[in-house]
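Preliminary data (for renewal application), zinc ion complex.
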Amino acid sequence: MSRRAIVELGDPVLRERAREVTPDELRSDAVQDLIDDMIETMRGANGAGLAANQIGEALRIAVVEVRPANPRYPYKPPVPLTVIVNPVIEPLDDEVEQINEGCLSVPNLRGEVPRLMNVRVRYTDREGEQRDEVRRGLTAGTFQHELDHLDGILFVDRVEDRGTFSTWEQYDRLHREQFEQRARAIVERMGS
Ligand code: ZN
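Predicted structure:
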């Protein structure tokens, strides 16, 4: 396992549609090692998730994990480590909330992104088992952010009100308190 360099905005690998992983590839040491590296890289950077193209591999693999009191996103409820291969996402309704997001590939920028609050995610796990899960609230937003990466989409593309862009320092100073209040209300209402 090793922590890898995170690719940043401007590198074309973040703008490609990553390709599907075959069952043989998923079983291979190369892809299993890649998944281990993604987990270590996400944890080392205090991320809530990481997509394979964020470490330069254009494959449809993402990892999500929120440990309690994540320093980047302290309002996010815990999510156990989830390895997502070849995911497909489906909205369950049209409920949307504006979520203040950041991204390890977009240093020092946050902004408000509309995210569906109720989604079904179908994917293969790292053992090759098919999974079908409903994700709600802030966790649904986290999954949408990671799945967007696999289609070459960054959160900055989805920001509707460009006036919400802010550096992390200005977010802390001017926006954090109000957004965390909204985030807590979402968690209370949606359960995650
Ligand atoms: Zn990201």
